[in-house]
Amino acid sequence: MRNSLTLLFCLSILRSMAQWGPPTTIARSELDQVYQSSVGDLDGDGDLDVITINDYPPNSSFYAYLNEGEWQFSTSFELDLSWDQEWTTWQLVDVDSDGRADLIKDGPEWYRNLGGLQFAEPQSLIDGFAGHLFCDLDGQYGLDLLLIDLNGNQGYSYAHQLPNGTYTEPEQFTDMGSGPNDFQGSPFHLLDLNGDGINDLLFIDSEEPGMRTLQVATGTAQGAFNAPQLYFTLGAGQGIRELTITDRDPSNGNTGFKLDLHTPNESIWFEPTIGLEYISTTTGLAMGYGVDLNGDGAQDLLCFDGGGPSVTIRLNDGSGTFADHQDVLTARGMLANGDHPADMDGDGDLDVVIRQWELDRMAILENDGSGTLNTRHEVAANAVPNPEQLDLVDLDGDGDLDLLTHSWNDIRVLFNDGAGGFVTRIILDEERRVSSFAHGDMDGDGDLDIIYTGYDEGVVLLLQGPSGQFTRQEIGVVLYGLRNSRLIDADLDGDLDVVVAEDELSTQTPRAFLIQNEGGGSFAPPVLLGDAQTFLMVCLVVDVNDDGLLDHVGEIGGTIGVTINAGGTFDAPILFDGTYGRPAHISDLNGDGLLDMIADAGGTLIIWHATTPFVFEAAQTVALLGGMEYADLRDIDGDGRLDLVQSFAQQVILQRCAPDGLFGQASLVWNFDLGFGFSSFAKAGDVSGDGNSDIIVGSQLSSRVELLTNLSSSDYQISGRIFHDLNGDQLYQPEEPPLPWVNLQVAPEASSPYTDVNGVYTVNATPGTYTLQPAVDPQLWTVTSTTPLQTTLTNPEPLAAGFDFAIVPAQEISLLHASMVQGTTACGDTTYLSLNIANAGTRVEQGTVILQLGQHSSFLSSTSTPSSVVGNTITWTFEELNFHEVRSIVAHVTTPSFGYIGEPWLHQLQVDALDDGGDILSTTNATLGGAVNCAYDPNDKQVYPAGYGEAGAIDLDTPYLDYTIRFQNTGTAPAFDVVIMDQLDADLDPERVEVLGFSHTPTQVAITANGSIQFKFLDIMLPDSATDQLGSQGFIHFRIHLREGLPHLTEIPNTAAIYFDLNPPIITNTVHSTLVDCNTWQPELEADTYGVLRAPAGDLYQWFLNGDPIPGAVADSIQLTTNGSYTVEVTSTLGCVATTPAIIATDLPETMAESGFLVVPNPFTQHARLIADEILPNGTTVTLIDRLGRVLHTLNASGTRTIDIHRGEAPPGLYLLRLDRPGRATVTQRVVIQ
Known about the structure:
about 0% helix
């Protein structure tokens, strides 16, 4: 809660939030730590799509990018897959040959592609092997499987696919294998070595330690393999690097392959001839995959190295001679898992898909047909991966602000189209460990250039040319470990010099360097700045003495001071006594004619007001939530004073500067989803070109950049009302009743307002064309005015008022909703009980309200005088309840005292709608109850129906949920405003919300762009709880319908955030609702050999014998003691109640009554169980005796009704079992061991 000082400021969360349009995503990328990827035709349209697996288990997620042609890919689609988040490999394979690529998890588990990016539950194909390959061995049905080391047994097996998608039992055809896997790549390949048109299996084998051979198992026409034959033996000590299919000479008609070795480093090339004969040639090491990149029929070499220039090629001249390495223009790349180069653009040549883990990038190297791969296309074209710095700057000189940003490995710009759209992105420089950038006109040609620093790359200048291209020039190559950069005319020669500094986080005494601009593209060598000059790194350049010359204001020796420009030289510093921090802004903040300062003191921002020139006093200290690098000083509200914008976690906060030069209270601009991340930046500027400062927010964690459009001083607005057209003229008259709390659908706005208590709505917008229509139930209401309405907002005509909608009843229906909400308080104290009546019908209603108060509570008073009070039954009457009106009767009642803790309480409410004659038209009931509990949460959330158990299980056909959010000001001063933000689950329909009750009339209800419902209570002036316990409380009660067709086990969590003025939100408890189809609950009984019946897992049990409940039989199992029909009624963990099919016991021995115990089974082979008619006391023994009277075993009782008997070494035969119980006669029974 706010303390008394914060009452000086009166800016509200509500007012701020109302002035911002919904966020627009400028750039977003899910390509964060992509550790696997694959390509395949996911949508069956004939081209290849891309799938990525991001982040490491257990936090992995799957995204699909659909190929739309012309090197364009769709935005990402997150795939909903059920898997155990373990380390494994994935690939796209069309297993069933239906034209759509399926997902295969190493195992292999098959996720069948159902179309529409939906995948079936995983189907385990064959278990227990070390590796596999999908391939067509027999030419039938779908793909078959080649398996390695099945069930831990070394060797190779195969399994054929059957018509129903299952596989034959694996058949092993050799126990030979690769042995220790000390080489890279696959130990086997399929290729036709003997020229019969059938693929053979070529694999690596270890006959003995240190000795490797190549073996061939020739394929058969039936899809099987013959026994392996020796193909090639390596020399002693020769180590294998990799076995690849690389046919360097296509003239012989056979497919060649290559064996790369180490010790020595060489490659052996094999060209098959006749049968299994071959010609081999040894050359120097030639690593790489065989791929025909230039379409001449001869395979070239494609090689990737995850650490260096990542992709290189060597073109084959057609005779088996390879050209020197050509480095492809990319770095730190990695071939997509399991994929060879593929024709991604359908032009007949092979492109290369790369996954650049360090750059968070998925890209495709386009083959131009000649084997040249210099053109790169990114799969996520608008991505800004992990932005570490953002700035708004007109880089192309077209008058609008572009977005300049850098991540770990590149610097890039997103160009503004003039209306706040960012569609064109150019990477200015890449493959550099970028640490900072600055921009300015370095060569005096009128356009902006860029300098940036790298952790290990020195200082780089990107000089912009006349046509917008950038030329790279290194100007500080001897400097490393730099973290900061800026441009400043340090030597007063009219051009910008470069000042850079080392990383403050990696060294205790970071150094700063000056690189002087000598003009003509020349720069002097870096010069180390002394302590007195390091302030150039962070100083402000401003004319402080109004002489037309720019001076330098900075921190000098811990004190802020200024060096005055004397016309070519600087005077000695003038220090401002008592000041500290790094100056961030200088201007006349409070209008007294003196220059004031804003300084960054590291974690706080200080406003220094000047009392006389160059004499300052601290006027205000403001907390910096994340540091100035995450904030911006910009005039947001157009009053000429700089406001403070900060981004922290998922929130954007604004503090306006008032006329007195002080920042007002913090207000919430926007609350992003929790996945937005904590490392986020806020920059402000007129991005949309409407004269207002908008806010760009970039998240380093989620690789997102969002634009918040400023509507605060914009007059682009649509307004109107929805009313009951009594006279049918479609024009509003004051006597015509409003329809409050009706949703207005606005396109293309993502935010959706509801009418207020007067039926009025307001839409804050930007220039453009909008369509509006009310979301009313057509069975109840008919819109008689034109719908939908359309309007265009332009600069000359920014307002569209009077967009009213006239409605009349479609039929006369009496429909009331009744509900109750009780306040929070201690046991035995006074609280409020709000009786809410909402008129959802088409009649103006009258009637009665009858409250039956719980037996441990008592009625004290109410806001409306009751017509009768009889004990705990209180009755009220009501009249003139208008359409969509919500009316409450607030009763003051006492709560049960401490002595009733744990006992149930229940209030019952009945609301009768009456006609003019007093007859009942409709009756509505509501209940409110629970167990008496003296602990309470003053800010909580409730859902009705509450459902069963922790999951909140409710019936699958539940049409809607009723939510109540209670709030209380537990601070020390009144709360001016309260905002409730309730993030709605995607399974809830935001267009079908009904307001059922409230403690204070909401000033606005709206569905925000990020799917939250927002309730605003402006100027609520909620007293604090110490001053007024009851008055400090409030609530909102609303109903929201579920979307249709939701499946069994749909989970709907809900949590709300409650904002009291500037304070961080109070997050309520999370309520859970789970849709359950109890028709799917069909419990079955299981019986064991000891005559024990077990029920499936559940919460409650009641056993029945021959249809009658067995007293006390409420456990999950029962021991059979009597013949008959047994069933159990089980209440599942989701609240479903069902009775199992009966199990009939017919062969139990009828000896319980005679001997007092049973033995089951009898006869038995190894084990049996003795079941007594009562719990066996201590001292009880059970003895097994043979026919000669010899004691074989003696067992002691364990305080239960059963004792397990083990045969031991007893031979088959007839035995006597004797039971000795203290205080009872010895009894025996014959048992047979088989």
